[in-house]
Amino acid sequence: MIEIKDLSVVYQSSQETYTALKDIHLSMPMGGTCALIGPSGSGKSTLLKVMAGIITNFTGTVEIDGQAVSPTRQKIGFIPQNYGLLPWKNVYENICLGLKIKNKQAKIDKNSVDFIMKQLGIDGLGQRYPGELSGGQQQRVSLARAFLLKPDLLLMDEPFSALDAITREEIQDLFLEVWKKHAVSTVLVTHYVEEAVYLGQKIVILSTEPGRISKIIDNPLFGEIDIRNKREFFELSLQLRNFIKEDWSNC
Fold it and tell me: Distance between CA atoms of 107 and 92, rounded to whole angstroms?
């Protein structure tokens, strides 16, 4: 279980004090997915950084299986908007990077790398460099690195926002296909309502000033076949969009 209780984050400078998150309560089972939607300034990225162990100055608790979150204790994967690939390393080296950082002495199992690359459709690209890849290919490399790590928690900050609409849907499908095989606990930030409905078992809507949870939805459509073409998908997306429009207009 991943549990967040009474979480608040306050930024202080010499001139002002700013509350980024206030009284956040959230729980999700291990192996689940959670989509976060919120306006600019609602603390979405701050919440991910707290869960990643990057921000440690907060009040409240953030736990993974009953233990306080810590990148030294748990394996936490993080995919930023720009994919986080090193341009001077080739695809194979970028995929292995997370595992090498976490397990300095461990030998990389080439078969495991080859397997995850094949699952994500990038086998044969191992010697190329990020600058030689399309956006969709770079995203696949980033996902391969995350899944190879076998993280206790995978955090994704608008991972598909830079892709065109068709490629974004293809990568969403691919992510779900691989996620089902590895059951990685995942929290992703998105600005797209449809993406949240498609990828989130749990959908969390944040409001701003300060960042609070306005609504939590246990998604009844998650995992259904051909979900994008179902009437219920459009209805739930419309309900969320109407709620968000009203909620955010009051921020």
Answer: 14
CA 183 from centre of chain: 14
- The pLDDT, as a whole number, for residue 3 is 93
In the structure encoding, which two tokens stand for residue 125, read together? 């690209």
Closest CA to 77 of 212, 197, 182, 213: 182
Beta-bridge mates of residue 27: 3
CA dist 60 and 78 (Å) reads 22
> Is residue 240 situated within a structural domain?
no
Distance CA 161, CA 66 (A): 33
Structural domain including 79 reads: 75-151
Distance of CA 17 to the CA centre of its chain: 28
In a domain, residue 196? The reply is yes
Q: What is the SS3 assignment for 168?
A: helix
Structure tokens at 33: 């997915």
Report pLDDT for 250: 66
Asked if residue 200 is part of any domain, the answer here is yes
Largest CA distance in the chain: 54
For 245, the token pair is: 């429009």
Q: What does the pLDDT read at residue 102?
A: 74
- The reply to whether 25 falls in a domain is yes
- Only one residue has tokens 């990020």, namely 130
Q: What are phi and psi of 79, to 5 degrees?
A: -115, 110
Torsion angle, alpha carbons of 226, 27, 4, 142, to 10: -30
Element holding 202 (H helix, E strand): strand 202-207
| DSSP at 28 | E
The pLDDT value given to residue 89: 92
State how far the Cα of 93 lies from the Cα of 91, in Å rounded to an integer: 5
**Do 221 and 209 sit in the same domain of this protein?**
yes
Q: Which residues of the chain have pLDDT under 50?
A: none
